[in-house]
Amino acid sequence: MHMDLSPADLAFRAEVRAFLDEKFTPDLRAAAQRQAGVFAEADLARRWQSLLHERGWAAPAWPAQYGGAGFTAVQRYIFESELAEAGAPALPAMGLQLCGPVLMGHGTAEQKAFFLPRILSGEHYWCQGYSEPGSGSDLASLQCRAVRDGDDYVINGTKIWTTHAHHANWMFLLVRTATEGKPQAGITFLLLDMATPGLTVQPIITISGEHEVNQCFFDNVRTPVSLRVGEENKGWTVAKYLLEFERGGGSFAARLKGAMRQVRTIAQAEGIWDDADFRRKAADLEVQISAVDITERRVVSAASTGASVGDATASMLKLKGTETMQKVTELAVEALGVYAMPDQRPALGLGSNAAAIGADHAATPMARYLNTRASTIYGGSSEVQRNILGRAALGL
């Protein structure tokens, strides 16, 4: 592994920091600090994406030919780490990190020309139609049906846990178009305009109080065949391509380090930092974060040679990154003490003018703790990731 930064890389890091100093203004910073969800709220995300897009940095992983930043693997690592260290808003992944790369790899020329610029600009805000009430990590068992009718597919069924569907104007989804043979053999990947008649979005309020996810109902919803990505009944291949990005993308380590800094700040303010047992727990987490960091650096080093992330490595990072973040949020709640008990939701989110109960640092830790309970389920549960790693280790 070679991760010594070259003079050019150091200059790039300075450029990113200068951008953050100028564009990540105090009001944006304050809004980002009150976010408890996985992704920034839609209005904040759009504002931040607009600033990144203006600079040409909205899509750090996209090649320049599609309007992306065209960063090297090391530059992307530096960029994502610096944004995470600064606490910049986490942009929703569904368009930039998931649908965009899928269209590059499997979309038609017409699909690329139409959708990619609009994903970059933020004009199109995407959601992902994968999970169903009976099909989550076992995604191949999905039952939402699409039947070919001339130049359209007619969709009936439901999708659940659809993040930001209430903000999105486009959805990519997996549907069942055949029932013969293996379950994976009858799945098709479609794109859908969210304004299409017959589509209903109902909110699901999570235990942390956020409206992040929804259930979507399809009642004879039509989408053109021209919005199919890949071949009919070959959507599983497209889905596997996408899941590598979902499970392996981004920098867990930088956000973990930022979360641990918050733990230290809270613990010092609340007078628990000098407690030996608390410091032992904090030190143990620092070691685990270092392990995640070193693993990500190995991935960056390998990617610099053109190597793929791969299923096993993506699963390992998803597994350890999410489980470690859960532990960090647990420690933040412990550090907060009695101030973890009040309902702080009125002080969270954009447009709130309510003060936190207690110090300002008391506003988000409990909501983030509750929100991260889902992180070891979405994107493939921890059990699924361990199965993938087990099969890789056994050569199956």
Total beta strands:
8
Strand order of the largest sheet: 1-4-5-8
What is the CATH C level class of the largest domain, in words?
Mainly Alpha
CATH architecture of the largest domain: Up-down Bundle
Structure description:
There is one protein chain. The protein has helices at residues 7-23, 26-33, 42-55, 73-86, 93-106, 109-121, 235-248, 252-269, 276-303, 311-336, 365-371, 382-394, and strands at residues 126-129, 145-149, 152-160, 170-176, 187-193, 199-204, 213-224, 228-229. With 396 residues, the chain is α+β, with helices and mostly antiparallel strands. Strand 6 and strand 7 (213-224) form a beta hairpin. Helix 8 packs antiparallel against helix 9 (276-303), helix 8 runs parallel beside helix 10 and helix 9 packs antiparallel against helix 10 (311-336). It is globular. The two termini are 27 Å apart. The model has no long low-confidence stretch (mean pLDDT 91).
Short characterization:
By secondary structure, this protein is of the alpha+beta class. It has helices at residues 7-23, 26-33, 42-55, 73-86, 93-106, 109-121, 235-248, 252-269, 276-303, 311-336, 365-371, 382-394, and strands spanning 126-129, 145-149, 152-160, 170-176, 187-193, 199-204, 213-224, 228-229. The strands form two sheets. A four-stranded mixed sheet has the order 1-4-5-8. Strands 2-3-7-6 form a four-stranded antiparallel sheet, with no helix packed on it.
Identify the notable features of this structure and list them briefly.
single chain, 396 residues, alpha+beta, Butyryl-CoA Dehydrogenase, subunit A, domain 2, Butyryl-CoA Dehydrogenase, subunit A, domain 3, 3 domains, 4-stranded mixed β-sheet, 4-stranded antiparallel β-sheet, 12 helices, 8 strands, 13% strand
